[in-house]
């Protein structure tokens, strides 16, 4: 199982790094690239069009401002694309969110919260777990641990 991660610029890496950590924690292989929907559209399109042939099963796209990267990649691939709108200085990431989530019919991009890198990684794991039972088991255990942690915190407050 392999995920392709694409960010629009190097400045997006602090967000993308958190996605990489989640994928690593679950043992999911990934490769990370920098392609811009606006400055390197041919490279972005070529990556998306060839991703499946290179063993990639899902793409995560992180971009800020006019965040069209997820949509451009989704236009060139049948693979699922998850968009991470990256907070920009201009409109606190609202511009990125709207650019990522407002896709035309037929070109879906699953979109997480602004800077929602961890959820992008977790959503990728959930999607891949449909095919890989070991990931489903790991994800189920992850959710059970989350629940146990909250239950323990609640118990502390009730003392």
Taking Cα atoms only, what radius of gyration do you get, to the nearest Å?
Answer: 16 Å
Overall average residue pLDDT: 96
Please write the CATH class name of the largest domain.
Alpha Beta
Q: What CATH architecture of the largest domain would you give?
A: 3-Layer(aba) Sandwich
Q: Quick one: how many beta strands?
A: 5
> What portion of the residues fall into strands of 2 or more residues?
15-25%
Helix count, per DSSP? 6
> Judging from the principal axes of the Cα atoms, what is the shape?
globular
The secondary-structure class comes to: alpha/beta
* Uncertain ranges: none
Please outline the major beta sheet.
5 strands, parallel
The SSE order reads EHEHEHEHEHH
CATH fold-level topology of the largest domain: Rossmann fold
Q: What number of domains?
A: 2
What is the helix fraction of residues, given as a range? 40-55%
State the main characteristics.
single chain; 159 residues; alpha/beta; Rossmann fold; 2 domains; five-stranded parallel beta sheet
How does this model look, in words?
The chain is α/β, with parallel strands linked by helices. The protein folds into 2 domains: 2-128, 3-Layer(aba) Sandwich (Rossmann fold); 133-159. Helix content is 48%, strand content 17%. The chain is built from 6 helices and 5 strands; from the N terminus they run E-H-E-H-E-H-E-H-E-H-H. It has helices spanning 13-25, 41-51, 69-75, 94-101, 117-128, 133-157, and strands at 2-7, 29-34, 58-64, 81-86, 110-111. A 5-stranded parallel sheet has the order 2-1-3-4-5, sandwiched between helices. Helix 1 links the parallel strand 1 and strand 2 (29-34). Helix 1 packs parallel to helix 5 and helix 2 crosses helix 3. It is globular. The model has no long low-confidence stretch (mean pLDDT 96).
């Amino acid at each position: 199982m392999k995920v392709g991660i694409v960010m629009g610029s190097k400045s997006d890496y602090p967000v993308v790094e958190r996605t990489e950590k989640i994928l690593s924690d679950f043992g999911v292989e990934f490769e990370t690239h920098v392609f811009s929907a606006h400055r390197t559209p041919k490279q972005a399109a070529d990556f998306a069009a060839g991703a499946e042939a290179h063993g990639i099963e899902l793409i995560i796209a992180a971009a800020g401002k006019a965040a069209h990267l997820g949509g451009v990649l989704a236009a060139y691939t049948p693979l699922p694309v998850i968009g991470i709108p990256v907070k920009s200085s201009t409109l606190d990431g609202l511009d990125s969110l709207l650019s990522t989530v407002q896709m035309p019919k037929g070109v879906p991009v699953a979109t997480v919260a602004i800077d929602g890198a961890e959820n992008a990684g977790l959503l990728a794991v959930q999607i891949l777990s449909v095919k890989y039972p070991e990931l489903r088991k790991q994800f189920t255990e992850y959710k059970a641990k989350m629940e146990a942690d909250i239950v323990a915190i609640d118990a502390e407050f009730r003392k």
